[in-house]
Automatic annotation (TrEMBL):
Domain named Phosphoribosyltransferase: residues: 124-192
Keyword Transferase among UniProt keywords: yes
Source domain of life: Bacteria
Species annotation: Bacteroides faecalis
Family membership: Belongs to the ComF/GntX family.
Name of the featured protein: Amidophosphoribosyltransferase
First and last residue of the signal peptide: none
Length: 196
C-alpha cells in the first residue's frame, strides 16, 4: 500500500523531461529520470532517511526493485551495458556501513540483470554533507571529487549512473565528468528521487 501512494514523477514517459533538462549544457546524456518526488514531510522522505541514516540498507534494494520493475516496460534500460552507483568516500562508507546508492543498484540489477561496476569510479575527497548548502556551495563542494580507475572495460559502453536523491545535480555531474574521460562512453542517469 505504501508503495502505491508514493509520489512518482513519471519523467521516464516524457521526452526532454525536467530531469534531462537539468543536465542540458553540463554533460552529454542519452536519457535521465528520477522515479519519486522528494518532498519535505512525505512518507518517502522517511523511507529515504531510514535508508541513508537509519542503517536500513535493505530498503535500497527494495526500492531499487520497485523502481526497475516499473521502468522496465518503458524501455528505459534498453541498451544499458553496466550500472555504476555514485560512490561514497571510504571514510563515509565505513561510518555508515554501506553505500545506499549501491543497495539501490542491487535492486535494479536483480530485476534487469544488468551488471554492476563499483570499481571504475572512486570518491577521492571526503566532502561535507550537501544538505544545508546553497546551489553554488554544492557545486563548489563536489568539484573534482571523483577519480576514474580501470576504465578500459567501459570504452564504447552505455553506462547508467545511479544515485539516491537529486537536488542541484552537482554530485551527479561531478561523477559523470570523471567518466567522460572514457573513449566512446554514453551516459544515462537514474535517481530514486528528485527534490521538489
Amino acid at each position: 500500500m505504501c508503495n502505491i501512494n508514493l509520489p512518482r514523477t513519471n519523467y521516464h514517459l516524457q521526452e526532454d523531461n525536467p530531469m534531462e533538462q537539468l543536465f542540458w549544457g553540463k554533460i552529454p546524456l542519452e536519457r535521465a529520470t528520477s522515479f519519486f518526488f522528494y518532498r519535505k514531510g512525505s512518507d518517502f522522505r522517511q523511507i529515504l532517511h531510514q535508508l541513508k541514516y537509519g542503517g536500513r540498507k535493505e530498503l535500497g534494494a527494495i526500492m531499487g526493485r520497485y523502481m526497475a520493475s516499473e521502468l522496465l516496460p518503458s524501455g528505459f534500460f534498453k541498451g544499458i551495458d553496466v550500472i555504476i552507483p555514485v560512490p561514497l568516500h571510504k571514510k563515509k562508507q565505513q561510518l555508515r556501513g554501506y553505500n545506499q546508492s549501491e543497495w539501490i543498484v542491487r535492486g535494479i540489477a536483480a530485476v534487469t540483470g544488468i551488471p554492476v561496476n563499483t570499481e571504475s569510479v572512486i570518491r577521492k575527497k571526503n566532502t561535507e554533507t550537501q544538505t544545508r548548502k546553497s546551489t553554488f556551495e554544492r557545486w563548489e563542494n563536489v568539484d573534482g571529487i571523483f577519480e576514474l580507475r580501470s576504465s578500459e572495460h567501459l570504452q564504447g559502453k552505455h553506462v547508467l549512473v545511479v544515485d539516491d536523491v537529486l537536488t542541484t545535480g552537482a554530485t551527479t555531474v561531478a561523477c559523470v565528468s570523471a567518466l567522460m574521460e572514457v573513449q566512446g562512453i554514453r551516459i544515462s542517469i537514474l535517481t530514486l528521487a528528485v527534490a521538489e
